[in-house]
Structure formats: C-alpha cells, structure tokens
C-alpha cells in the first residue's frame, strides 16, 4: 500500500483522540484522519541512510509507532517523541541492536494542522467513488462505494443493467447479477454461479463508473 516508498513522499504521524496513526503520506492517512478525527498531524523527517529504500513499514513507521506507544504509556507523547528524535532501525541490524540509536533518525518535526487533516495527500479526495476499482479471480467487481451510504432498495446502474441488492448469493437465481455489502463494508457486484465481469462485458472493466436509481 506504499508504492512511493523510498521516494520523496513524506511519512506522517497523526494523533487521534486516544491513539496514533503512523504511515505514508499517500492518501491512505487522509482517509483515516477524516473518518476518525485527526487532532494533530506531524510530518516525519525523510530518512537519509540506514533504512531500506523499500521497507519503511519496518525501518521507519514501526519504530516510530513503538516509541509513540511507549510514550503514551508514560504520559503525553507530545512532551517526548513529538519533539525528540525517533531512531530509524538500520536494516542491517540484528534484533539485539534494536534498542540502540543508529546513524540516522526520523523526527516528528511539524504540527501541520491541529484542527483537521492539514496539507496531506488526499485531504480533498471524496469519501466514496462510484467506480469499479478491482476485479477478483471470481469475476466479482469491487467498488469504491461504502454500502452504508446506499439505500437498501437502490439499484446500481451499469452498462444499461439495473442491479438490485441482495444479502447473499443464494438470494438470487443462478446467473443473476446483484450487489451486496462485502466483508469490508463496500458495495460489490457479483452474480450467482457466474462471473459478474463476464456478464457485464465492457461495463465490468476496472475504472468503469456507475450510477444509482433510488
């Protein structure tokens, strides 16, 4: 989930009401910040050396998260990790070395916005998108729309097909298209005993937009 790892993309630490989020500034953090309510947002200094260029999850973010968790247990992390250097684990170190500081450090250097998501990537992105974003191996079509935002009686309109909601595959006839709330809470288009992608043809391609009839 971090195709920009090793580039100039920043890392972020976002303070929520009772926890922290640590990760790349690539849009994922903005979504979480908006949904869970960011209190403060800090940018992590870009590591220069001593970390893997393709494994910041281990060498930067995990280490920052550990130190923040330790500080939470001891008191307000803004009085410690937020203004003190946080070590970056040398990718060549052994587990026994993890307790020692290394050559380069990542810093929580600036409070970008104490009221919301601040100037981070994705702050202006929509909460939902009515578009097919993924097709799995069964031909089911995953979308960018949260099911909780759609009326149960709404019909999804794509490629001149009006597709009704069903709770499960067995609720529709074999070969019938339907949409349902998948295990991630998102709208997914499927067909009983058939590939929704195959049935919809051109309309089942990734990037295809769709509409709704309420």
Summary keywords:
2 domains; 214 residues; 4-stranded antiparallel sheet; Elongation Factor Tu (Ef-tu), domain 3; 5-stranded antiparallel sheet; 15% helix; alpha+beta
Can you summarize this structure?
This protein is α+β, with helices and mostly antiparallel strands and 214 residues long.
Question: How does this structure look, described?
Answer:
- Residues 131-201 form the S-adenosyl-l-methionine hydroxide adenosyltransferase C-terminal domain.
- Residues 74-100 are annotated as: Disordered.
- Belongs to the SAM hydrolase / SAM-dependent halogenase family.
- Keywords: S-adenosyl-L-methionine.
- The structure is a single chain.
- The protein is an alpha+beta fold and 214 residues long.
- The protein folds into two domains: 11-111, no CATH class; 129-213, Elongation Factor Tu (Ef-tu), domain 3.
- Helices cover 15% and strands 28% of the residues.
- The protein is built from three helices and twelve strands, in the order E-E-H-E-H-E-E-E-E-E-E-E-E-H-E.
- Strands 2-1-3-5-4 form a five-stranded antiparallel beta sheet, sandwiched between helices.
- A hairpin with a 4-residue loop joins strand 1 and strand 2 (20-24).
- The longest helix is centred in the N-terminal third of the chain and has 19 residues, at 56-74.
- The two termini are 34 Å apart.
- The model is unreliable at 77-118 (pLDDT under 50).
